[in-house]
Amino acid sequence: MGNSHSTDTPRHSSLPNIPVIERSSPALKFPRSITSQNSSSLSLSGNSKFSSAGKLSLDSLPVSSIHPLQNGSSLLAPSIKSPGSSRRNSFSSFRVTTSPEPEKYVWIAGKRFHNVEGSGYLFPCDDEEIDRMHLQHFMVRFAIQGNYLAPVSDSLRNGAAVLDVGCGPGSWTMEIAGEYPKSEVVGIDMTSMFPTEIKPINCQFMRTNILEKLPFDDDSFDFIFMRFIQMGIEEEQWDTVLEELVRVAKPGAYIELVESDLERYRVGPCIANFDKRLTESLKARNMDPYVARRLDQLLIRHGLVNVKKRFISSPAGEWAGKLGQLTLQSWKAKAEALKPQLCMSWNTTQEQYESLMNACLSEADIHKSYENIHFAYGQKPILQRT
Ligand SMILES: C[S@@+](CC[C@H](N)C(=O)[O-])C[C@H]1O[C@@H](n2cnc3c(N)ncnc32)[C@H](O)[C@@H]1O
């Protein structure tokens, strides 16, 4: 993979009087907006005008899959349910423990947020958030023309045990399961925004807090993927999370981490202001706004070998074609999703926040703004017998 830093000097970067309501509610049952229309309208044909900001090389990138739900088909099967149990299931290589206790939520300014003890995750868990995550997934897939960068295609084709950590609605999880029917894919997340009924037969989901010990045996997975979870992990928690990922990875397995740099580049004053304040808010929550830039260091520190890193620049705005449109839509959805928490943190009104947000969005085209998305992967060493 290529070098990791933009030539732009990276600069860096807490939540007004909005009522907070606490209550419990049933889990969401189905993902939204995984429809043929949505997926195909974001299909992978064509090149964007992304080169002026881009650093992407498409060498040896995997070809992306079509979402299994698009095919309508034999891949779809009812989920295996076993509430509250610990069991060996059709996934022969690892043990799965389901989470029996009901999910708890808090409502802030009309948006539903998880209420998981010990987690300061900033994004909501509602229908709009599910849409946002699908959109972000399509954007990245379009940008890298694939779903991962680690050299695991052969392993996936031959049948691998795959773990998607913080899987959200399971967009990535289900695509991998659909594309590699011999593989067994598990998605874990602290909120069940993932599908419980309609999903590929070789795919399952479970509710798990990744800040705790993972419910899998040692050496269970051939490929572990964790993307866009930085707003849920405090700086000193990364090591604990990585330790667990390495524990459940088989010797020789790859672990791939993907995060976007919160500082956007070639920006106008409004985006600069937004990013600076967001950075400060994250720091106030003990989160590292720049963790994307050191993903490779995390992997190395946890003993992984053959570590590689790369970043891509994803441009936002009409000036940058389809990827530009997707990225700008993603920026808008992200700013909307963060509104309740950031209005509180910044002690600002929703009207003030929206006015800044709209100014940011119109700046993107003027300045040809872009963001960097960082990828790093590495391999758990194979122990040599002496
Ligand atoms: C931005 S979404 C990314 C979803 C998916 N990885 C993707 O790239 O499309 C981050 C996900 O991490 C989950 N998450 C945050 N903190 C978590 C934790 N402590 N344990 C499990 N999941 C967590 C959130 O619920 C959310 O679904």
TrEMBL record:
<feature type="region of interest" description="Disordered">
    <location>
        <begin position="1"/>
        <end position="47"/>
    </location>
</feature>
<dbReference type="InterPro" id="IPR029063">
    <property type="entry name" value="SAM-dependent_MTases_sf"/>
</dbReference>
<feature type="domain" description="Methyltransferase">
    <location>
        <begin position="162"/>
        <end position="252"/>
    </location>
</feature>
<dbReference type="GO" id="GO:0008168">
    <property type="term" value="F:methyltransferase activity"/>
</dbReference>
<dbReference type="InterPro" id="IPR041698">
    <property type="entry name" value="Methyltransf_25"/>
</dbReference>
<feature type="compositionally biased region" description="Polar residues">
    <location>
        <begin position="1"/>
        <end position="16"/>
    </location>
</feature>
<protein>
    <recommendedName>
        <fullName>Methyltransferase domain-containing protein</fullName>
    </recommendedName>
</protein>
<dbReference type="Pfam" id="PF13649">
    <property type="entry name" value="Methyltransf_25"/>
</dbReference>
<feature type="compositionally biased region" description="Low complexity">
    <location>
        <begin position="33"/>
        <end position="47"/>
    </location>
</feature>
